[in-house]
UniProtKB/TrEMBL annotation:
It comes from Coprinellus micaceus (Glistening ink-cap mushroom). Residues 40-225 form the NodB homology domain. One of its GO terms (biological process) is cell wall organization. One of its GO terms (cellular component) is plasma membrane. One of its GO terms (molecular function) is metal ion binding. Its cofactor is Co(2+). It comes from the Eukaryota. Coiled coil: none annotated. PROSITE patterns: NODB (PS51677). Pfam families: Polysacc_deac_1. Keywords: Carbohydrate metabolism, Cell membrane, Cell wall biogenesis/degradation, Glycoprotein, GPI-anchor, Hydrolase, Lipoprotein, Membrane, Metal-binding, Signal. This is Carbohydrate esterase family 4 protein. Residues 1-20 form the signal peptide. It is a lipid-anchor; GPI-anchor.
Amino acid sequence: MFKSLTATLLASIALQYASAAPLEPRQTLATVYTACTVPNKVALTFDDGPYNYLNDIVNTLDANGAKGTFFFNGNNWGCIYDTTLRGRVKYAYDHGHQVASHTWAHRDLATLTWDQIHDEMWRVEQALIRITGANPAWMRPPYGSYNNLVRQASAVRGQSLVNWDLDAGDGDNVPVATSKSRYDSKIAQHPSTILALNHETHSSTAYDLLPYVIQKLQAAGYQLVTVAECLNKAPYQSVAAPQTPTADWHC
């Protein structure tokens, strides 16, 4: 009787503990990169698009033999499935620039649940696969904000995280002169590499800052490449043909 009662109590305690204790089956953490690793390389990155200035940014990069990386949202400044915007995404991709995930609606991933994080991730990944055929291997968390749950989710999805070591400040609406000064100060330090954060949603970035920094960086001897190239990694998990739009391509 005593042994039976003891066993029952122990089983009850174990059941209560199991139901209360968090289960952590997802232990692998995605790598977070904040700097390039290949010497003399600079990665110019552009967040928060697709937006109105995307094609002009691509054209400026192309005219100067430079490559950029675009971290796209699905539904931030506009719906990625909008005919014009998805055309711009395809334009950047077709011109050899890297397309990557900035998640769906630019929510702070560190404040979300496991399911919410995955929802923010897969929806923009699906859009990029549909529009370009490329499954991104890179994700930039909105605001640069992440925790271990975000890293676990990224690992499950086969992605690495990438932030930056130079912030132009355009996302905080600093004057373009301040953004130029930040680049000037960084270049004056002669770092081996630079991983720069810009935002494609500002006309001053597209038409004033970008031509300026390209000239300055190239004059300093840097090659302007994609994030994947500056880290000597693959840009995509897989590449296939783009898909034909259907009725479910909407935000």
